């Protein structure tokens, strides 16, 4: 999209979104559907929508049903639904006959790109530099840099907002022992986020090691396995977890990804929440059972004529240290956590499927830091309506998207809760209830006492509604 026009930059926005990933794209789509229009703008450093491009492996599927699109679980009649995207592409009947509840990952990204190309108020090629609260204006000041096609600074700008929505996403995580290897230019040591960019180079290596047993690690191991010669696979797959564990996908287990569980989790003491979050990795960091079956089937197929594939799968292993040998080899120093046995592994390439961490926003929000309330671990307090808790001097709200696992639980990064969270934010921001939300979403009662879902009071308007148009 084009740069923010000067007149628009000077006029305060009701809402400024920082980052345009699926979650802020959902917020923008539902904001567009309000009867009383919201003056909003969303900014993204990249020049177009992009969702994990390095992991758009052929055949890989999104792990939530297609109804977990940007809008449907809140507004099925929205023009920005996945089904309307299929309709616009004349693909509804093929989708109907395909009977696919879980769509291809590349198709999900194509759908989001379609929304991002058509939805007004999105500004790509804009890097947000800082956010400050202006007590005099009673507004947030948002400074940005407009970038040219090469990512170089082209112009500086400032806009003003009554409210902010942070949707800056996550960034690849590299464990400390492996960080020195990633920056070296010789033997490839790459994060799974960049897998497709380096796939040909990886396949040319004689031996490849995949570290990490989440869904990304499994998909990459399977993709590499399928491409390797029979009997000369040259693959190791290592993980710290005690097993190559399937993700929880039972019907009642999935209710941990409902608004009911988010409310229950938020009401728990901080120490209890932290203890729970640590032990719930299997709910969202395991492997899809179908992917596990595909891996086993491929390994089994390679035994049909006798012999075993040259593929080693070992759980319960951590990488203690790592180093380079000559210029083309990587040496991994391993320790088995149960056996307390150490060994070394020489490999030609390493793929780190070691997950993601929330992208730090301390620098971005340095001007607001004095106003923020934090918990015992120094993390921002996030209220039930996804707002950072601030001093009363700040009359605007800072909403967060996928930065509230410590307060709302495992559902924070889940696409299935995107539309719900966006609707909650818009209900809170407008002081109305443009998107009525169901009072119950799970059969499970997670506690003996269930707090009633909060209802948004019709007061404290953060923007001036316009007359509805019909």
Labels describing this entry:
alpha/beta, globular, 470 residues, 13 helices, five-stranded parallel beta sheet, disordered C terminus, 20% strand, 18 strands
What does this structure look like?
This protein has helices at 6-10, 22-32, 82-88, 92-98, 105-118, 179-182, 195-203, 215-227, 259-266, 270-279, 289-301, 405-408, 418-430; strands at 15-18, 40-44, 122-124, 126-134, 139-147, 153-161, 163-166, 170-172, 189-191, 208-211, 235-238, 311-314, 317-325, 329-336, 341-347, 349-352, 356-358, 397-400. The relative contact order is 0.16. The longest helix has 14 residues, at 105-118. Residues 457-470 have low confidence and may be disordered. The two termini are 28 Å apart. The chain contains 13 helices and 18 strands. It is α/β, with parallel strands linked by helices and 470 residues long. A hairpin with a 4-residue loop joins strand 4 (126-134) and strand 5. The strands form 5 sheets. It has a 5-stranded parallel beta sheet, covered by helices on one side. A 5-stranded parallel beta sheet has the order 9-16-10-11-12, with helices on one face. Strands 4-5-6 form a 3-stranded antiparallel beta sheet.
Low-confidence segments, ≥5 residues, pLDDT <50? 457-470
Strand order, largest beta sheet: 3-2-1-7-18
Radius of gyration: 24 Å
Number of strands: 18
Q: Given the helix and strand composition, which structural class is it?
A: alpha/beta
Average pLDDT number: 91
Helix content class: 25-40%
Major sheet characteristics: 5 strands, parallel
Outline: globular
Topology summary:
Blueprint: H1 6-10, E1 15-18, H2 22-32, E2 40-44, H3 82-88, H4 92-98, H5 105-118, E3 122-124, E4 126-134, E5 139-147, E6 153-161, E7 163-166, E8 170-172, H6 179-182, E9 189-191, H7 195-203, E10 208-211, H8 215-227, E11 235-238, H9 259-266, H10 270-279, H11 289-301, E12 311-314, E13 317-325, E14 329-336, E15 341-347, E16 349-352, E17 356-358, E18 397-400, H12 405-408, H13 418-430
Parallel strand pairs: 1-2, 1-7, 2-3, 7-18, 9-16, 10-11, 10-16, 11-12
Antiparallel strand pairs: 4-5, 5-6, 8-17, 13-14, 14-15
């Amino acid at each position: 999209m084009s740069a923010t026009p000067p007149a628009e930059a000077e006029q305060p926005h009701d809402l400024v979104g920082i980052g345009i990933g699926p979650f802020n794209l959902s917020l923008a789509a539902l904001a567009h559907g309000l009867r009383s229009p919201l003056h909003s703008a969303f900014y993204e450093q990249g020049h177009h929508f992009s969702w994990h491009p390095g992991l758009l492996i052929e055949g890989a599927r999104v792990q939530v049903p297609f109804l977990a699109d940007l809008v449907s679980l809140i507004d099925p009649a929205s023009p920005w639904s996945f089904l309307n995207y299929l309709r616009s592409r004349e693909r509804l009947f093929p989708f109907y006959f395909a009977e696919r509840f879980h769509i291809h990952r590349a198709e999900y990204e194509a759908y989001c790109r379609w929304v991002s190309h058509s939805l007004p108020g999105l500004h790509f090629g804009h890097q947000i530099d800082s956010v400050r609260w202006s007590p005099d204006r009673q507004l947030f000041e948002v400074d940005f840099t407009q970038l040219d096609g090469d990512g170089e600074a082209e112009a500086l700008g400032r806009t003003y907002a009554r409210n902010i929505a942070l949707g800056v996403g996550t960034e690849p995580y590299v464990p400390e022992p492996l960080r020195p290897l990633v920056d070296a230019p010789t033997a490839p040591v790459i994060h799974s986020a960049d897998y497709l960019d380096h796939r040909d180079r990886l396949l040319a290596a004689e031996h490849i090691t995949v570290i990490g047993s989440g869904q990304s690690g499994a998909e990459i191991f399977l993709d590499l396995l399928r491409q390797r010669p029979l009997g000369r696979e040259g693959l190791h797959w290592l993980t710290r977890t005690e097993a190559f564990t399937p993700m929880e996908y039972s019907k009642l287990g999935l209710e941990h990804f409902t608004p009911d569980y988010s409310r229950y989790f938020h009401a728990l003491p901080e120490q209890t929440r932290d203890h729970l979050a640590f032990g719930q990795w299997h709910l969202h960091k395991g492997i899809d059972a179908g992917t596990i079956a595909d891996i086993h089937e491929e390994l089994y197929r390679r035994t049909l004529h006798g012999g075993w594939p040259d593929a080693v799968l070992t759980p319960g292993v951590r990488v203690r240290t790592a180093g380079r040998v000559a210029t083309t080899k990587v040496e991994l120093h391993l320790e088995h956590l149960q056996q307390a046995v150490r060994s070394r592994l020489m490999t030609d390439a390493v793929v780190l499927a070691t997950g993601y961490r929330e992208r730090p926003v301390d620098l971005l929000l340095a001007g607001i830091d004095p106003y923020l309330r934090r918990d015992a671990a120094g993390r921002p307090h996030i209220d039930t309506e996804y707002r950072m808790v601030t001093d009363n001097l700040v009359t605007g709200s800072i909403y967060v998207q996928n930065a509230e696992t410590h307060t709302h639980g495992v559902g924070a990064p889940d696409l299935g809760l995107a539309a719900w969270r966006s609707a909650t934010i818009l209900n809170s921001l407008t002081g109305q209830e443009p998107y009525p939300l169901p009072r119950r979403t799970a059969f499970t009662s997670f506690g003996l006492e269930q707090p009633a879902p909060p209802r948004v009071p019709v007061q404290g308007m953060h923007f001036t509604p316009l007359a509805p148009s019909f």
